[in-house]
Design a protein that fits this description.
7-stranded mixed beta sheet; transferase; Thiol_S-MT; binds S-adenosylmethionine; single chain; Rossmann fold; S-adenosylmethionine-dependent methyltransferase activity; SAM-dependent_MTases_sf; about 200 residues; methyltransferase
Length: about 200
């Protein structure tokens, strides 16, 4: 019943006014570290998927072309507001990560921060990211994951019933997800709460 795209749209529209109070400071270091792993070049075309209120914007280079999308219109409004207050030119649009409205081979970098553990079908989201990325272009991920070498145990799966309804899935495994979607992982490091939160840089192959 929960963890559907419709439920996510509803709850993130409701969370939008308080999102920064919860997430700004808490993830500041982790998002900077993740974005710092990207090999940035002037003029790159960059897509933020599930961009929330745009908390990544302050940590992006100024000489790239930025597109930011989110499922929840209340989030997209806040992205546009943040971009304006930062003096950044950002194309902000409401869009489902499962159906990106961009052509194939269009972006140099796709950023997916704290969305793969939220969307009901992360495989589909990653396939879309792969489709819109140019060959060998970069995917920047920061999220919470279960260790790749062991599936989630019973207790974690039980807790996941609650966390996935109100916040996020805690049983997903990064490496199988990314590799199945056609990405080669170049960097994978823990960035927060031990190894629960990881920052990964991968290439579309
Ligand atoms: C935990 S927030 C992360 C926001 C932001 N990336 C950040 O790092 O602060 C998850 C975001 O993903 C968005 N989202 C969830 N499902 C989505 C989907 N199918 N397509 C696009 N955005 C989605 C939500 O609306 C929410 O803004």
């Amino acid at each position: 019943m929960f963890n559907t795209t419709g439920w996510n749209r509803l709850r993130y529209n409701l969370y939008a006014p308080v999102y920064d109070a919860v997430a700004e400071r808490a993830f500041r270091r982790a998002r900077r570290e993740a974005l710092g792993q990207v090999n940035w070049q002037p003029g790159m075309r960059v897509l933020l998927v599930g961009a929330g209120t745009g908390l990544d914007l302050p940590w992006l280079p100024r000489d790239v072309e930025i597109h930011a999308t989110d499922l929840a219109p209340a989030m997209v409004k806040r992205i546009a507001k943040r971009a304006e207050s930062l003096g950044m030119d950002v194309q902000a649009d409401t869009m489902d990560a499962e159906r990106l409205e961009y052509p194939d081979d269009h972006f140099d970098v796709v950023v997916m921060h704290l969305i793969l553990a939220v969307m009901p079908d992360p495989e589909r989201g990653l396939m879309e990211a792969h489709r819109v990325l140019k060959p060998h272009a970069q995917l920047c991920v920061m999220d919470k994951f279960q260790a790749d070498d062991e599936p989630a145990g019973l207790a974690r799966r039980a807790l996941n019933e609650l966390t996935s309804a109100i916040a996020t899935d805690i049983t997903r495994q990064a490496r199988p997800l990314l590799e199945t979607a056609g990405f080669a992982i170049e960097v994978d490091r823990p960035v927060m709460m031990g190894s629960l939160f990881r920052a990964l840089l991968a290439r579309a192959v």
